[in-house]
Amino acid sequence: MYSPRHLRERPGGGPSDPGRRALFLGIAASVGLGLVACDEGDAPEAPPRATAGAVPAPTRVPAVVRAAPRPATPPALSRREILAEFRGKIPTQWGLDVTGVATGSRSRSVALTFDACGGPGGSGFDRKLIRSLRRHHVPATLFINLRWARRNPGLLRELATDPLFEIANHGVHHSPLSVNGRSAYGIPGTSSLREAYDEVMGNQEGLSALTGRAPLSFRPGTAHYDEIAAAMVRRCGLLPANFSVNADGGATFTPEMVAGQLDGVKAGDVVISHFNQPSSGTGEGYVAGLPGMIGRGLRFDHLSAVFGLGKAALTGVAAGR
User: Fold this and answer.
1) Is 41 helix (H, G, I), strand (E, B) or coil?
2) I need a labelling partner for 256 at 20 to 30 A (CA). Which of 65, 205, 273, 293 fits?
3) Ordered structural domains, the chain, with CATH
C-alpha cells in the first residue's frame, strides 16, 4: 500500500530485503489505518496515536507517477448521461493508486494538500497550521467535505477568498468511492454508480454555492477508489487525486514524525495531511518542518497548477440533472 523512501524496491514491487519487508508491512498498516482518523465518527475505532521516537521515512504509494495525468475535459453531460455511460461496468481495481488517479506529478513544485473530513469529531480547524502556511506564504489545496463546510461556512468563505488556498472536493459523506459497495478500513463505500456520482457532485454543487467557485479536483473519504469511479470523476470534470507522501498518518502522527515526513518530500510530490484536527501533531509538525523545506529550495503550488488543470475543465457540466 505504501512504500517508505528508504526501503528499496524491486522493479516488480516489494522491498528487496525480507526482514525490512516485515518492517514495511507494519508501517503500512499503521499509516493506512490512519487515513480514517480524520473523522472519528466514521471509523469503528480510531488507531492509537503514534508516540515519539524514531521518525519513519516518508510513506508513499508504490508508483509516484506512471503517466502524466491529463486534465478532465468533459462535454456538457447531464447526470443521466454520465450514469448511462458507466452503467454495467465492473471494476477490477480497488485502493489508493488505481488507474486514472493522480498521485504525484512531474512538476518542479510540491503540492501540499490538507483534508477536512467533517462529521462527529472531524469538523475542527487547525489555526496553527493555517497560520504557519500564511506566515511562510506557502500555497495549499484544501479538500473540503460537505459536512465540514456546513459546520464552518464563514471559515470556508474566508479560506476560499485567500489566494494562498485552493478549495477541492472531499465528498458529501466522506465515503470511499465505489460503484459496488467496497469498503476501506471498515468504512462502507458508496454502494452504486448513482451513489458514487452523488457523493462527488453533491459536494461539487455545495462547495460551488458556498464559495462561488467550482473545485477542480476530488479525493474520496479514506482516499480509496475503484477505477470505474475514478473514470466517472474525470467525466464529471474533476481530477481524481490522491498523494505520494502521507505526512500525518490521518492526523495521528506526533509533531516530530510529521516534521520527519516533510524532511523527505521532493519536487513533484503531492503531500496529504489534515487541517481539521487542531489537537493532533500536524500543526506543530508543519511549524517545525516548513522552514526546512523552504531552506532546501522546494517550490510550492496548488494541485491544479502542478497538474495543469484549467477552469475550462468544468464548463458545461450539468451536475444536477
Assistant:
1) coil
2) 65
3) 18-314 (3.20.20.370)
